[in-house]
Write a structure and sequence with these properties.
31% helix, homodimer, alpha/beta
């Protein structure tokens, strides 16, 4: 492929933005020019890309007609303000903020629903879903190819880096205060998150449903093209810096023998199946890696239709930045 | 009640043993003499009880005919060695180690299956189940009184104190090493547990089932008198010092309206139902308290038969020591 593309990266100064820069270089993405952008207050910093220092500029002053693809890795408000401008300039948008509705910006996990892009017209407006959705979709897709899925129960323990650098700093600060027996004054969270688990992440609606959990379910249904799939999702804030971990129980429409499930998962390029007896964890296995790690695969007790498993992956890398770059790779291969 | 009882406490030097001593004093349990016992290597320490210092003696040299009730809060091997001796001396045994089979030592949660003791003959050999079982049984009992339970999915995030003082020390040590950027050499666990979640607790059998999870399911079925209840259980080691937290999803045989579930739970003395919008956590709510905290009670998405909730409680106190003392209170009230 000799063609190369001008790229804009909005939210370059965040954890996901920085990982996007690394991945574009590491995967030799055909970039002609990389424009690093952020809101006015974050502009001015510099990041290395292919041996040069690139300065982050104010997105408000950017002319999107210069680029073919724009990654939106800043907050929801930034996407809402500037994605329409990028689209109007004929630029493909890949959103990582969750700001756009599912019918405005279909969620894409290239290993699973790459074909969903074929039905769209340019300029393309696509989104990378929540990290647990990337993980679940890659694990479930090979299973639903051969089995009917009736019900899914997911407990997602989210890494603190889902709150960005501020989250990482706050967990470290709280932990240090506690180990030094100093009084704890929580910031960013309304209570102690160090050595604790918070049962609620983000806002909750009048029915007690967390908006994040609703989004997880809707995005997963869209990516798997299973709009009726019953999903019970609970998102918990864990005192873990990087790496989301999911405890998953699924019910199939009929017997789903363990050997069949193993065979379906073992051939998937995105997955690393950890053998019985051992199990993967965020720290030590998933963090810094491209793979989604699957372990503790086991049948239900006296129930051949039930399958239980554990999934862990780097939420910033595979769960966000890498999936977005894979969407861009899909676009340049077939559509741009 | 003017009668008082001589009591033996085996495993007095452990976290649960120490809490048992506190609770016997705090609840004014009618103790005539308290004998603190442990294995030979732990003997010699002293603990305060009702203003006096009691010295811990070697259990191997103890004559169980001196006491009416013996709490076994040491390891499984200690229970296996000495519980038969206590029983032969006519002493009631309350085991907290999990060493005895379910038909040798029925699991009792006094709020739930106190009546199970009525069918037994002295000398009584009873057991306090795993902390998550105490929590689940207290929450589910009021619901199963009015509704059929079809299926239960539980992700139990266990506090490190389930591994005793050694576990607590190891989490603190690992955390300090990491914050000081020193190389980590795990002890007690085979990997980093600080800022991580371990997907497997204890030994796993040839089918990938953890023995602890099998025990959890069997004990819960016994306490609820629902031997056929389908339960999917996953026990995870969390980097939390004290307080187990459970993410629970249950399916009823028919619609289980949220208002009915709330009404069933709100009247239970063992439970503290946290209102919508807020939620309980181990640190700040449960630790040091007698109550089992329930929150995030919510219906399934588009499924009136599904109910999701979060439970947290002090694993050492309510999950172990307090439940055992409540079993003893039940015994002296009706059976001794």
């Amino acid at each position: 492929m000799s063609q190369s593309f001008a790229i804009a990266l909005i939210g370059a100064t965040g954890l996901v933005g920085e990982t996007l820069i690394e991945l574009l270089e590491e995967r030799e993405f055909p970039v002609s020019t990389l424009h690093l952008l952020a809101s006015a207050e974050s502009a001015g910093q510099s990041f290395a890309f292919r041996g040069k220092n690139l300065r982050v500029r104010d997105v408000a002053e950017f002319d999107f007609s210069q680029v073919k693809i724009a990654f939106f890795a800043a907050g929801e408000a930034v996407t809402r303000s500037f994605a329409p401008r990028a689209q109007a300039a004929g630029c493909a948008v890949i959103d990582l903020s969750g700001a756009l509705l599912l019918d405005e910006a279909p969620r894409i996990v290239p290993e699973v629903n790459a074909s969903a892009v074929a039905g769209l017209k340019p300029p393309y407006v696509l989104a990378s879903p929540l990290s647990p959705v990337v993980m679940l979709a890659c694990v479930l897709a090979p299973l639903v190819r051969e089995h009917t899925l009736q019900r899914l129960t997911v407990m997602a323990a989210l890494a603190i880096s889902q709150r960005g650098r501020e989250g990482v700093t706050e967990l470290a600060r709280q932990t240090a205060e506690l180990l030094n027996a100093r009084p704890l004054e929580p910031r960013l969270f309304d209570r102690q998150v160090a050595f604790n688990l918070l049962a609620q992440v983000g806002l909750v609606d009048g029915e007690g449903q967390a908006l994040l959990e609703r989004r997880l379910v809707a995005e997963l249904q869209q990516v798997l093209t299973l709009p009726e799939l019953k999903v019970s999702a609970t998102c918990v804030q864990a005192p873990v810096f990087f790496g989301d971990s999911l405890s998953v129980s699924l019910l199939a429409g009929g017997p789903l023998p363990l050997a069949q499930a193993q065979a379906a998962l073992v051939g998937e390029s995105a997955l690393e199946l950890v053998e019985e007896g051992d199990y993967p964890t965020a720290v030590g296995d998933a963090v810094g890696q491209d793979a989604i790690y699957v372990g503790r695969l086991r049948q239900g007790l006296d129930d051949a239709t039930e399958l239980n498993l554990w999934i862990t992956s780097d939420n910033v890398r595979k769960g966000a930045a890498l999936n977005a770059v894979q969407i861009a790779e899909l676009l340049i291969k077939h559509y741009l």
